[in-house]
Amino acid sequence: LLAGSAASSLGWKWGMWAPGMIGMVVGCILVLGVKDKPETAGFDPVEDPTAGGGSDGATSETEAEQVAEEEEELPAEAPQKESIRQILFDNVLKNPFIWGMALTYFFVYVIRQGVTSWFVFYMLQEKGALDAGVAAQRVSGLELGGLVGSLLAGRLSDMYIARSDGGGIVGKRVQVVIAYTIGVACMLLAFRGVPAQWVSAQWLCIFMIGFFLYGPQMLIGLCGAELVGPASVGASEGFLGWIAYLGAANAGVPLSIIVRDYGWNAYFTTLLCACAGALLLLAPMTNLKSYVQRKELENKKKMKMK
Asked: Residue 152 and residue 157: Cα distance in Å, rounded?
C-alpha cells in the first residue's frame, strides 16, 4: 500500500525509496531497543543459574546422590556429541516427512512468489487497473491478510491440539495447513472470476489469498521444528528454507514463460496445481507425532519392560 501510493503520487523511484527509508528507521529502533537476553531487559533468566547446585547442604547431598546414580547407569564411555553433518544427514535428510514438508514448502513458495510477482501485471491487463500504482494498492491486501492469517493459524493449531483427545501434535498442525491450502485454492478461483468493476471484491479476494497462504508458510516451519530433536532444529529449518526458496526461484522464469506463451488461464492452473501438489504431500502426515511425543512413548515402553 505504501509503495503503491508513493509510486503513484511521487514517481516510481519513491515506490522503492519510501519502504526502504521506513525499514531503516524501524531497523535502527530494533537495534537500539531490543535486548540480547532476558536479564538485560530486567526479566528472570530462562534457565535457573542455581539449578546446578543447591544453596543448602541437604539439597547438595540429594543432587550429588542423583548424579552418582545417573553416572552408574551410564555406559563406560559417554557417546560423543553429534557433528553438524551427522545431525543434518541422520536426523533431517533421512527423515521422509521432512522431505515431504520441504516439498510442500516448495509449492507454497511457488504460489506466494507467483502471486506477489504477477498479480500487479494481472491487474493491469485483466482487471482494469489504470497504472502500476493503482494495481499495487489493490494487491496491498495480500500482506495484510498474511499477517492476520499467520497469527490466527498458530492460535488455531494450538487450540485444536488443546481440545483434541490425543494424536500427533505435528499431525494436528498439518491438518490446519491442509485447510488453509484448500482456502488458497478456493480464493484463487474466486479472484479469477471477480469482474473488473468490483474493485472492493478484488481487494477482499487478495486479502483472503494472503490470509490462507501465509498460514502454511508459518506452520510448516513450526512442524519441521517439532518433528526433529532440539539439536536438529536449526538444520531442519535451514533445509526447509533452502527448498522453499528454490520454489520461489521457480516462480520467476517458468511462470513468465507460462504467462507469455499460454496466458493467464494457464497461470492460474499452475498455481492450482501447486495447491494440489501440496495437499497430496500433506495427506500422509495428518497423524504425525512430535519428537517429544515419540520420546515419551519410548520412555513408557522402557518402563513397561522393566
From this structure: 8
The three three-digit cell numbers of residue 28, written as one number: 535502527
All three cell numbers of 287, joined, read: 497423524
User: Does the structure show a pLDDT above 90 at 277?
Assistant: yes
CA distances (Å), origin 131, targets 10, 100, 123? 13, 41, 9
The number of helices, as runs of H, and strands, as runs of E, in the chain is 13, 0
Cell readout for 65 is: 546422590
- The yes-or-no verdict on residue 301 having pLDDT over 70 is yes
Picking from 269, 249, 273, 116, the residue whose alpha carbon sits closest to that of residue 181 is 273
| C-alpha span between 81 and 106 (Å, rounded) | 32
Cell 547438595 -> residue:
60
Find, among 112, 139, 121, the residue nearest to 249 by Cα. Answer: 112
- DSSP strands (E only) in the chain: none
Give the CA diameter of the chain: 80
**For the chain, first and last CA: distance in Å?**
64
Asked whether the beta carbons of 111 and 178 are under 8 A apart, the reply is no
* C-alpha torsion sign, points 253, 258, 259, 265: negative
d(CA 45, CA 54): 17
pLDDT class for 76, splitting at 50, 70, 90?
very low
To the question of pTM greater than 0.85 for the whole model, the response is no
Beta strands in 1-144 (DSSP E): none
**Lowest model confidence (mean pLDDT) among 41-45, 54-58, 140-144, 209-213:** 54-58
Please state the three-class secondary structure of 224-263 as a single string: HHHHCCHHHHHHHHHHHHHHHHHHHHHCCHHHHHHHHHHC
How many beta carbons lie within 10 A of that of residue 60, not counting itself? 12
What is residue 78's DSSP assignment?
P
Please state, in angstroms and rounded to a whole number, the distance separating the CA atoms of residues 232 and 225: 8
* CA–CA dist 51, 218 (Å, integer): 34
Going by the DSSP 8-state scheme, the letter that residue 13 receives in this structure is: T
Average pLDDT taken over every residue of the chain:
79
The confidence score (pLDDT) of residue 303 equals 80
